[in-house]
């Protein structure tokens, strides 16, 4: 049965990959040690500027408690600024001007709770995730870090009807007269936010400094379905190495330490991410750190800038916080759409996603989109499947003769195998003919699996009747039961294994995969049920023709 073979092949390949990955981690060649960057950079005619906060400095500057409430904000001399747009409800702490909370307006936590929006950024101990930024200078008192206290005109900012942008300014002034305005610019209909640090030098001497931006998060306690791995951690893009992931352990070990031009850095998770995108043409230094409190940082800092007395300098960049919608992210930065990670099968999966999107644009229902796409896939591989089913049908036709050989030779397996091979040769049957076509199709099936797993478009997308969210399991387990039943029917159409123990194991597989698919997204269930139904129809016709002696 083709799908059982596919499942077994997939399980074997996946197990091999895990073993290879574990070997690499334990015995693989270690990456070359990165030479530590000098702690200071001498600007022409200016004093030395520190490049980035040390782990100890960043760690000691963290709040005493990870949960920032109104009481702790007031006690620390800061307050929360609330921002509302058509895409966000965001809280900005005047302590550092950090984004400490972000709810995505278009994405409820579940269909059952449509008024409770998904929280991407937050200070909950179980899923701590915030965005920080600040300035660095040789004189710490002349550069507001993410611990400096800013001032804001009001506590609530709302994007009103008729306005396309919302500007939120926070201000900080040094004793010498240096003024820094941290400006957030929100745009209607966009998850992209422009972030500026405007340095106005009203002092009597030149100011030298740089800007840094970083994402800090903990390792979330809720990792979702244990049967379906989804990546949570850091990722960057550079022109030299393209898309790279840095998990929490790699960030803690400082393996991210590189100068990048025209790139970005992010913390990503299933369906959503937050990313900083520096201006094009500017070289930034990307870094990763692990903090003593168990959190992790991925960040970047700009080249040093000099601001003469009476002059002004603006550090610019973009911040994206939202869903992994490929079309939107591709417009923001090169390679940002690669965070929808299809792994080594991207060359196959990406065209599949485009076709699925096109079909959805016509039918406007992801359930029917999956069904139509499944039919197209079966049509593309019709001839390969026909070869496989024809081989299995011929093998099924030989079952009485194989049983006779087994009765004749008993426990003499060597003579029985030789007799079977002679029989296959005489009847011109390839015993591997049913497997080889499936091996060709296997990468396409796995690629489609990842497309359905990674596409945020399927999140809370309804199909029909009881299936109101294709990204979660079937609430009544109807699809897994149907899938198990179709696997059982397919098994009956296939030749029985000659080994009794193997036959018993094969009989258990429909039950095993029914249990497994009970926890898979229902979108995958729709795909496999449809695939099995089409396979049964095709295999049944071919088997009947072979058994009737037809050559067609």
The low-confidence parts are 1-75
**Average predicted local confidence, pLDDT:** 80
Question: Span from first to last CA?
Answer: 21 Å
Note the beta-strand portion.
25-35%
Give the helix/strand class. alpha+beta
Helix content: 25-40%
Largest sheet: 8 strands, antiparallel
Shape: elongated
Rg value: 30 Å
What do you see in this structure?
This protein has 552 residues and is an alpha+beta fold. The protein is 37% helix and 27% strand. It contains 14 helices and 21 strands. It has helices at 2-27, 55-60, 70-75, 248-252, 326-332, 346-363, 366-380, 382-397, 399-409, 413-426, 436-454, 478-493, 500-517, 522-547, and strands spanning 40-42, 48-50, 80-84, 88-93, 98-110, 113-121, 129-136, 156-158, 165-173, 178-187, 192-201, 207-218, 233-238, 242-246, 257-261, 264-268, 272-277, 283-290, 295-301, 305-307, 312-323. The protein has an 8-stranded antiparallel sheet with strand order 9-10-11-21-17-16-13-14. Strands 7, 12, 15, 18, 19 and 20 form a 6-stranded antiparallel sheet that branches. A hairpin with a 5-residue loop joins strand 1 (40-42) and strand 2. Helix 6 packs across helix 11 (436-454) and helix 9 (399-409) runs antiparallel to helix 10. It is elongated, with a radius of gyration of 30 Å. The two termini are 21 Å apart. Mean pLDDT is 80; it is low at 1-75.
